[in-house]
UniProtKB/TrEMBL annotation:
This is SCO1664 family protein. InterPro entries: CHP03843. It comes from Kitasatospora paranensis.
Length: 265
């Protein structure tokens, strides 16, 4: 997928969309589709704006645009953490269309519940939680470089919903983030499971990428984001990047906002 992003974007933008079904457990309308162009077909999801459930803390009718904005930031990092995503018209009106990622059923688990005395080697703590029988367990995620990049991306886009179902390990060994409708708020709404690196120094490659983003946001990336965000949200994105660079560390949870999605999956 990562190898032919321009072709995927063309297919998603220009291809004929056919709806095959609805993902029933989703809170918004999420339609499983195929896009077909010049004999090439690819599975995708289509989330029509008309199917967006209104939220108290985000303006109506532009979650789809936020998904595209999140994709643009991911693409600008060079880390390709979000599958190609476009805004286009479809059978149920304008919406976002994103390439489908087939989950790898053999991929190792990235979350676990462990003994509260833990975590085990190779795992990082998220939070202690009460489980059945009144026992306490430690919720942990793997100390995985792909998750760490996702944590940096989420800090930039201010992702309010990075639960465990919102990353998909693909058969090519890559990890893809999905569901970025609640992002880019001007308030700190970072809600994620990926707190294992909180306050730790950012890795060198993350600092390099953030430095690049700072310039890009003031230029071509900013222009690509502008149709989807308010000027204040665009400015806040630049401010988050600047704050991350100045601190040189992964962020801490906000005291004013539930920082862990619950249930975690
Ligand atoms: N690009 C994708 N590739 C593969 N599966 C996807 C993709 N996008 C969404 N899905 C599947 O569809 C489900 C619902 O999508 P999504 O989480 O984006 O919608 P939602 O309405 O916000 O749902 P929820 O409120 O349950 O989080 C996901 O949990 C995932 O299983
Ligand atoms: Mg979801």
């Amino acid at each position: 997928m990562a190898a032919d992003v321009p072709a995927a974007l063309g297919l998603l933008r220009e291809g004929t969309l056919t709806v095959h079904g609805r993902l029933t457990d989703a809170s918004n309308a999420v339609l499983y589709c195929t896009a077909e162009l010049d004999g090439v077909t690819a599975p995708c999801v289509y989330k029509p704006v008309a199917g967006e459930r209104p939220l108290w803390d985000f303006p109506d009718g532009n979650l789809a645009g936020r998904e595209v904005a999140a994709y643009e930031v991911s693409a600008a990092t060079g880390w390709a953490l979000i599958p190609p995503t476009v805004l286009r018209d479809g059978p149920h009106g304008p919406g976002m269309v994103q390439l489908w990622v087939e989950p790898d059923p053999d991929a190792p688990e990235l979350l676990d519940l462990q003994d509260p005395a833990g975590p085990a080697a190779g795992w990082l703590p998220i939070v202690r939680a009460e489980i059945e029988g009144g026992r306490t367990a430690l919720l942990v995620h793997r100390d995985d470089g792909r998750l760490r990049r996702l944590a940096v991306l989420d800090a930039v886009i201010n992702n309010a919903d990075r639960k465990g179902g919102h990353w998909i390990p693909a058969a090519d060994g890559r990890l893809y983030g999905i569901d970025h409708g609640v992002t880019f708020n001007v308030e700190d709404k970072l809600r994620t499971l990926l707190w294992g690196w909180a306050e730790r120094p950012l890795p060198e490659d993350a600092r390099e990428v953030l430095g690049r983003l700072a310039g890009d946001l003031a230029g071509p990336l900013g222009e690509r984001l502008a149709p989807h965000l308010t000027p204040a949200e665009l400015a806040a994105t630049g401010a988050r990047v600047a704050a991350l660079l100045a601190a040189g560390r992964h962020p801490l949870p906000s005291p004013d906002w539930p920082s862990i999605p619950w249930p975690p999956l």
